[in-house]
Design brief:
- This protein has 136 residues and is an alpha/beta fold.
- It has one domain (5-135): Rossmann fold, CATH 3.40.50.1390.
- The chain has four helices and five strands; from the N terminus they run βαβαβαββα.
- A hairpin with a 4-residue loop joins strand 4 and strand 5.
- The N and C termini lie far apart (59 Å).
């Protein structure tokens, strides 16, 4: 079995209603790497400013980085199509290991996943608003 180096990526700001402390994110990712038999690389920590993905972009464009571990796929701007497409525009294939979802997805398949996610989010949003009207 070839060596797999899991490059961790952590987000110090809230995402999708979650605010997971950096040490907890690191623990998730380190345990995930250990259970999979991967080598764990300490996390690249993103800036606190909402909407910035500078560290992730740098990690994705680094030669020989093909496996990136993150706590959740919801750390990515799934609801912002253009921002996501700009972020994923890199020359090499990168696999994202999303621990909470138990999902591995590459940067080429992620836009389609995000499109489906947006349509399901829109559907559930409209159903919740109908439910709110019912209880008023």
């Amino acid at each position: 079995m070839p060596e797999v180096w899991l490059h961790a990526y952590s987000l110090p700001r809230p995402f999708d209603g979650l605010n997971i402390p950096l040490p907890v994110q690191s623990c998730f990712l380190r345990n995930y790497a250990k259970n999979k038999g991967y080598f764990f690389v300490l996390p690249a920590v993103e800036w606190c400013i909402d909407g910035l993905y500078i560290q992730l972009r740098k990690l994705m464009s680094t030669e020989n980085v093909s496996e990136i571990g993150m706590t959740s796929i919801k750390m990515l701007p799934l609801m912002k199509e253009q921002q996501l497409n700009n972020l994923l525009d890199c020359s090499q294939e990168v696999n994202f290991h999303c621990v909470l979802e138990n999902l591995i997805i590459n940067n080429y398949n992620l836009p389609e996943y995000a499109k489906e996610y947006r349509s399901l989010a829109k559907l559930s949003e409209s159903n919740f608003s109908k439910l709110d009207q019912y209880f008023q």
